[in-house]
Amino acid sequence: MSTSSTMANPQSGKHILVVDDYADALDIWAIYLQTMGYRVSTAADGLSAVAQAERLLPDLVVLDLELPGLSGFEAAKRLRENPATREIPLIAATGYSHARQLDLARQSGFDAVVVKPCDPDMLVQEIERLLPARREQLQPSRPAVEQPHNNG
Questions:
Q1: Cα 62 from chain centroid?
Q2: Which of 68, 53, 58, 60 is nearest to 21 (CA)?
Q3: What's the first-to-final CA gap in the chain, in angstroms?
Q4: Quick one: which of 72, 83, 70, 146 has its CA closest to 110?
Q5: Distance between CA atoms of 115 and 123, rounded to whole angstroms?
Q6: Burial 125-145 (b: 16+ CB within 10 A, else e)
Q7: Alpha carbon 145 to chain centroid distance?
Q8: Closest of 11, 116, 96 to residue 60, by C-alpha
């Protein structure tokens, strides 16, 4: 078994908080990111996501937008309002690619958006792009968006 991709990863060991209310998706993302060399914590709702982010101070958060209780939009706003978490890069994960959803994500403080289902390598590319940057260094005007796979 080759571990070259994990060892070659310059961000290896960085801590990612992954938030999704769909348990299978949460498990898949966590396992995949761990194989890429990241330390991963998970949460299944918005309130837990905010609490864990405040307690753990991860290097980056991947946050589903549609969560029970506290939505991903509101969770992002709370993270941006807290001085301890406002600099953490946020990636929105959504099954919707409507312009309104993407605009709301940007207004809520997300640095990037990935549209589910998302190619795992595309998620890692966004993580790699955002990890070296602090929030104030990111270009807030447009989050990166993966387009749905329609090559036809």
A1: 2
A2: 68
A3: 35
A4: 72
A5: 10
A6: ebbeebeeeebeebeeeebeb
A7: 12
A8: 11
The closest alpha carbon to 97, from 114, 109, 110, belongs to 114
Angle (CA) 37-39-43 rounded to 5° is 135
Give, for 39, the enclosing helix (H) or strand (E): strand 39-43
User: Omega of the bond prior to 117 within 30 degrees of 0, cis?
Assistant: yes
Instruction: Calculate Rg over the CA atoms of the chain.
Output: 14
Assigned token pair, 116 = 């589910």
Phi and psi, residue 9, nearest 5°: -70, 115
Q: Which residue in the block uniquely carries the two structure tokens 């749905």?
A: 148
Report which DSSP code applies to 147.
Answer: P
**What's the pLDDT score for residue 152?**
42
- DSSP H helices in 89-135: 99-108, 120-130
19 strand-pairing partners: 43, 63
Q: Which tokens sit at 151?
A: 């090559």
- HSE-up of residue 95 (Cα within 13 Å, Cβ side): 6
pTM equals 0.81
Q: Per residue in 27-68, pLDDT tens?
A: 999 999 999 999 999 999 999 999 999 999 999 999 999 999
